[in-house]
Amino acid sequence: MRIALLLGLLVLAFPGHALTIAAASSLRQVMPELEAAFREQTPGSPVRVIYGASGKLATQILNGAPYDIFLSADETYPTRLAGQGASATDPEPYAIGRLVLWHRDPQRAPLIPEELAGKDIRRIAIAQPRHAPYGQRAREVLQALNLWQTVEPRLVYGENIGQTAAMVESGAADAGLIAWSLTFTPELADRTYTLIDQKLHSPMTMAMIITRRGADQREAQRFHDFMLSTDARAILEQYGFEAPEED
């Protein structure tokens, strides 16, 4: 409740009612372009984005956090919120996320997951599986390859996928399983990575909802529709997100 109160005060500190979006940390690099494209189509619409692990954002929404839209890293949390009456819309897929194995040494050839068992990889970063979809998928990959028991003692956990990537970038971890989207920055362009086979983990179908708070917010519906547009999907694809399969 304390978090929800603080977030509420933050929103009230700004004049007017900005569209407030709770977004998975894997969207941090792409959101500025999505915001700019949305504003171009809908002038005068202020947007505020709060990033975090999807599970934690979902908990904040249940506790009354003033978010109008929730952009999750998978379908699980929007589906739970809808089932608990915290959503004004059904979960809507907007992208497919991809996982990569990333090494901090730009001079090293790309790793394959099996090499994580090597003793030269002392610390391996993944997002916390309890509340981060990318962490859940990372664990599934390691389990599918029968690596979990070997590498578990060497795992270090980020609270969200952005923090996990920062661990690798800073050298706090030698390698990490992170969101492909977070490698699309000039600072990280020289880092090597290996795209993880999607067959090794459950689908990373990213879904969104309009929350109960956003139900009467016209801008929330506009942004929801924008995220399903060809313009938004073209931007998402530039950052490693794939289009969801059509029904």
**Percentage of helical residues?**
25-40%
Along the chain, the helix and strand elements come as HEHEHEHEEEHHEHEEEHH
CATH superfamily of the largest domain: Periplasmic binding protein-like II
Based on CA atoms alone, the radius of gyration comes out at 18 Å
Low-confidence stretches: 1-15
Let me know the largest β-sheet.
Answer: 5 strands, mixed
How many H/I helical runs? 9
How far apart are the termini?
38 Å
- Outline: globular
Question: CATH topology of the largest domain, anyone?
Answer: D-Maltodextrin-Binding Protein, domain 2
Category from helices, strands and their pairing? alpha/beta
What is the annotated CATH architecture of the largest domain? 3-Layer(aba) Sandwich
β-strand amount: 15-25%
Q: Strands of the largest sheet, in order across it? A: 2-1-3-10-4
How many structural units, i.e. domains? Answer: 2
Q: For this structure, what is the CATH class of the largest domain?
A: Alpha Beta
Tell me how many strands there are. 10
How would you state the average pLDDT, rounded?
90
